[in-house]
Structures are given as structure tokens and as C-alpha cells.
Design goal:
This is RpiR family transcriptional regulator. Helices cover about 50% and strands about 10% of the residues. The chain has about 290 residues and is of the alpha/beta class.
């Protein structure tokens, strides 16, 4: 009896490796070296890349449990869009200078496209809410936590009560129980999101605080895309583009949004914000820290 193979297409390949014929194994090795290639290649192109026949490609995808090569390619595209860097590496012959210029151009394009749909009025509205909040909670997992920490450090110069989640040594429930009505919660939902994020957003949506969502996804793109936006009743929603010509997402627009938001918090804080900054600078001098 042939075992049923399931899971992501890479997991299926690994599970099938012991039973593959030599030509199928050569095809599997080619795909595992560059797992993103199957998402953009035709069956013929993939066969040529692995030096096997089209019939081998057909047998191979069926052995993985797919009805056709197109079905396998769709599964690969869904995995690629979900964000794992290894699925975005390609066998490109682009030189380093060309790759550098492509990255710069894409970063600029991401910023321009993102802010074509984000108004200064929206940013100012959130900035004012931050200044009036009892506490600001900023949530980010994996790569997104770097932006949560950055935004916290920037606005923390102006507002005294800023907390980044998750905190080391604590469960999320222990922190969420402290969120109050006058608080503001900022959630970064950047690919690849963790599985618990939709449940967390659902709890925040049922909670007392106002929320802002910063996301790089506008809709579901496959079975591995976590539908975060649908779970959070956010008063502010900012969609940023993170498209990249290489394996790693380009977060230029995310950082730009954080920078502008922090700048507007400072500019709209008025005399109170300047007094806090002066007090911090006096302490820097007193402690000889900088």
C-alpha cells in the first residue's frame, strides 16, 4: 500500500526521498537546492535544469501526491509567498552590482507604493492617540520584533509608558491581562507570522484598548498565509509593501513608517515632549553616558 504523503511540498519531497528512482532523486536534489525554482519554472524548464525527462517530472509530482505539475507549482508558490527565505533563493546569474541596484530600486518602490495609500492624517491620528494613552503596547514576533523595539525606543523618548511584547520569561496572557481601556496597542503582522498571532489579535479585538495594525499582506494568498487582519478590529490599519528581488523581504517601507510615526509623535507632543527630551539630555550629561 502506497503511503499518503502530505504537508508542504518540500516536506513531501523529503518524505519521498528513500523511495525515489535515480532520475527522480536527481530532480528532487535540484529542487531542494533551490526550492523556489519550481514556483516559476514550467515542467519542461525544470526537467532541463535537472537533466531529466518530462515524464520523470510527471511521475515525480504524482509520487508527491499532486494530481499535476501545475498543482505542485501552486503549492510551491503558496509556500514562497508565505515568506521562508530558502524558498525565495533562485539560481540567478545577476551580478552583485545589478543585485545591489535592484534592491535599492525595490526599496524605493516599496516606500512610494506604501505611502501612496497611507495619509499623514492617519499617522497623526495614531500619534495623538499614543500621546494620550495610559500605556502603549507594541507587539512583534520574529523579524517584526526588531521594528517593535525600534519604534518603542523612538517614541519612548517622548512618552514614558511603552512596553514591547512578547516579554522574556512571561506568557502573553500575563501581559494582555494588564491592557486597559485608555491604552493603545500597535501590532506588527509581517511575514512570516507565527501561528498564535490570529488568536492574539482576536483577544485584542475583544479587549478594551484601541489597536493599530501594521501588515504587509492585504489578503490571503495560500494555505500558509495567516489571516491576521480579519481577526483584529483595528482603528488604524497600515499596509506596507515588503517586495524584494532576493530571498529576504525588503522592509524599507516598514522602517520608514516607524520613523515618520515617531517623528510625528515628537512634533505633536509640544512643550511636554520637549521638556521630557531636555530632562533626558540632562541625565545623559549627569551620567556621562554619551
Amino acid at each position: 500500500m502506497t503511503p499518503v504523503i502530505s504537508g508542504s511540498y518540500v516536506a513531501r519531497i523529503r518524505a519521498a526521498l528513500p523511495s525515489l528512482h535515480p532520475s527522480e532523486r536527481r530532480l528532487a536534489d535540484t529542487i531542494l537546492n533551490f526550492p523556489g525554482e519550481i514556483a516559476s519554472y514550467s515542467a519542461t524548464e525544470l526537467a532541463q535544469l535537472a537533466n531529466v525527462s518530462n515524464a520523470t517530472v510527471t511521475r515525480f509530482v504524482r509520487r508527491l501526491g499532486y494530481d499535476s505539475f501545475d498543482q505542485a507549482r501552486q503549492a510551491a508558490r503558496a509556500t514562497q509567498q508565505a515568506g521562508a527565505a530558502v524558498f525565495r533563493v533562485s539560481a540567478s546569474d545577476q551580478g552583485p552590482e545589478g543585485a545591489l541596484m535592484a534592491q535599492i530600486a525595490q526599496g524605493r518602490q516599496n516606500v512610494e507604493n506604501s505611502f501612496a495609500a497611507i495619509s499623514l492624517a492617519e499617522i497623526d491620528d495614531l500619534a495623538d492617540a499614543i500621546l494620550q494613552a495610559g500605556r502603549v503596547w507594541i507587539i512583534g514576533f520574529r523579524t517584526a520584533q526588531a521594528f517593535a523595539v525600534y519604534l518603542s525606543a523612538q517614541i519612548g523618548q517622548i512618552v514614558p509608558n511603552v512596553t514591547v511584547l512578547p516579554q522574556a520569561g512571561q506568557t502573553l496572557a500575563e501581559s494582555l491581562g494588564s491592557i486597559a481601556k485608555d491604552d493603545v496597542v500597535i501590532v506588527f503582522a509581517l511575514r512570516r507570522t507565527v501561528r498564535q498571532l490570529p488568536a492574539l489579535c482576536r483577544e485584542l479585538g475583544n479587549g478594551p484598548a484601541r489597536a493599530a495594525l501594521i501588515s504587509d499582506e492585504t489578503h490571503r494568498q495560500g494555505p500558509e498565509t495567516v489571516p491576521v487582519a480579519a481577526e483584529l478590529s483595528a482603528q488604524w490599519r497600515f499596509v506596507v509593501q515588503t517586495t524584494a528581488p532576493g530571498p529576504l523581504f525588503n522592509h524599507a517601507a516598514v522602517l520608514t513608517l516607524c520613523h515618520i510615526l515617531a517623528t510625528r509623535v515628537l512634533e505633536r507632543s509640544g512643550l511636554a515632549g520637549r521638556k521630557r527630551l531636555l530632562a533626558i539630555e540632562a541625565l545623559h550629561d549627569s551620567l556621562d553616558e554619551l
